[in-house]
Design a protein that fits this description.
Strand content: 25-35%
Strand order of the largest sheet: 1-2-5-8-11-14-17-20-23-26-29
Structural class: mainly beta
Distance between the termini: 46 Å
Largest sheet: 11 strands, parallel
CATH architecture of the domain at 153-369: 3 Solenoid
Low-confidence stretches: 1-7, 14-32
CATH topology of the domain at 153-369: Pectate Lyase C-like
CATH class of the domain at 153-369: Mainly Beta
Shape: globular
């Protein structure tokens, strides 16, 4: 079997290495050997034709150069080791020729910044180090695979970078949030990845995955009608926690139609700061939240497993409405009130949230949910 480019191997190799579970099933992270996938990718790249080639890097300088010069269809392959510095790209892949950054788990990106004076709205600027572990800016169609990001102000930041897939990446020991789909970075995926130990400096801003932006930041991060439309982001089969200081997933207002499925949430260490007291806070619209497993144990602050909120925005959206929960298993540790707490039914009268009876809960102070359950 041959592929058109090295980057085109990305999805095919997951199928080759992962156990088969049916045509439409996604293998959970625990059933996939990430080292085997990386090895398979390495071997296949070596023996497959490529229009744009493979760039092997083993130093921070080489990585910065490769990111600055990346071309559609190219694969940048990290050698094991630590890479210190600012790593940013503004190079775009295409739907047929995405760009791939791949490495083993012991290829570790570390940003020792931030430093210098940056613009009021974050943008790559000479003389300014954002402190981000990896920053894609106006860089759609990338595959990020296998490596680790740690000890940075923020982990992986996507700005105006739709169609990015993050797979089997480990992000940990981050000052603020681990992964942020921002500035209309729509149609992205994070799957089979691990996130822990966030919010080390600003606990209330230490989200695991952050989708979109608060409407107070749309003037900066909104680039589609003034709204940050990081729509249709999928968060699949990841392991969250422990010691994620804010929400494991924060879904911001003005975003639509994402999927949160098959994840494991360990709420130990949630800080309670800046209202961070649940695994998932949904202010977006039309999300499907299914097949997740959540638990909580002290220390930490925990109110509910999943929450909705309905911030008013201009333009007006039915924020925090039209979301569906099914087949989620929650253990609230004898501390949390509800597995799924819907803040308002009146604000969502035209597009109600739905909690199915297939959800289960243990050790809750109040029960499964505060609204009527749907069969």
């Amino acid at each position: 079997m041959q592929w058109r480019t090295a980057a085109g191997l990305f999805a095919a190799l997951i199928t080759l290495v992962a156990p088969s579970a049916g045509a439409n099933a996604r293998p959970p992270a625990s059933t996939v050997d990430a080292a085997a996938v990386t090895t398979a990718l390495t071997l296949a790249v070596q023996h497959s034709p490529s229009e744009s080639g493979v760039v092997d890097v083993s130093t921070a300088t080489e990585l910065r150069s490769a990111l600055a010069a990346a071309r559609p269809g190219q694969t940048i392959r990290l050698a094991p080791g630590e890479y210190h510095g600012s790593f940013v790209t503004q190079r775009a892949g295409t739907a047929s020729l995405p760009i791939t950054l791949v490495g083993p788990a012991d290829a570790v990106l570390v940003n020792d910044g931030p430093s210098g004076s940056g613009p009021s709205c974050p943008a790559p600027t000479s003389g300014w180090d954002s402190g981000y572990g990896l920053w894609l800016y106006a860089a759609p169609y990338w595959n990020l695979f296998g490596f680790t990001v740690k000890d940075s102000k923020k982990g992986i930041i996507l700005d105006d970078s739709p169609h990015v897939t993050i797979d089997r990446v480990h992000v940990h020991h981050i000052d603020e949030e681990a992964v942020h789909f921002r500035r209309s970075s729509a149609d992205g995926v994070i799957r089979n990845s691990r996130i822990s130990h966030t919010g080390l400096v600003q606990a209330g801003y230490g989200e695991g995955v952050y989708i979109g932006s608060a409407n107070s930041n749309w003037a900066c991060h909104g680039n589609s009608g003034g709204v940050d439309r990081s729509d249709r982001v999928e968060v699949l089969d990841n392991r969250f926690g422990p010691n994620i200081a804010a929400e494991h997933i924060d879904v911001k207002e003005g975003t639509f139609d994402g999927v949160i499925s098959g994840n494991t949430f360990d709420g130990t260490g949630i800080s309670g700061q800046n209202s961070a007291d649940s695994w998932v806070d949904v202010k977006g619209i039309g999300y499907v939240i299914e097949r997740n497993t959540g638990s909580f144990a002290s220390p930490g602050t925990f109110a509910n497993g999943y929450e909705t909120h309905n911030p008013a925005t201009t333009p007006s959206y039915a924020n925090g409405c039209g979301n569906v929960w099914r087949d989620n298993a929650s253990d609230l540790g004898g501390v949390g009130m509800y597995a799924i707490r819907i803040t308002s039914t009146s604000k969502c009268a035209g597009d109600p949230n739905v909690v199915h009876s297939s959800n289960t809960v243990r050790n809750a102070l109040s029960g499964l949910t505060n609204i009527k359950v749907t069969p």
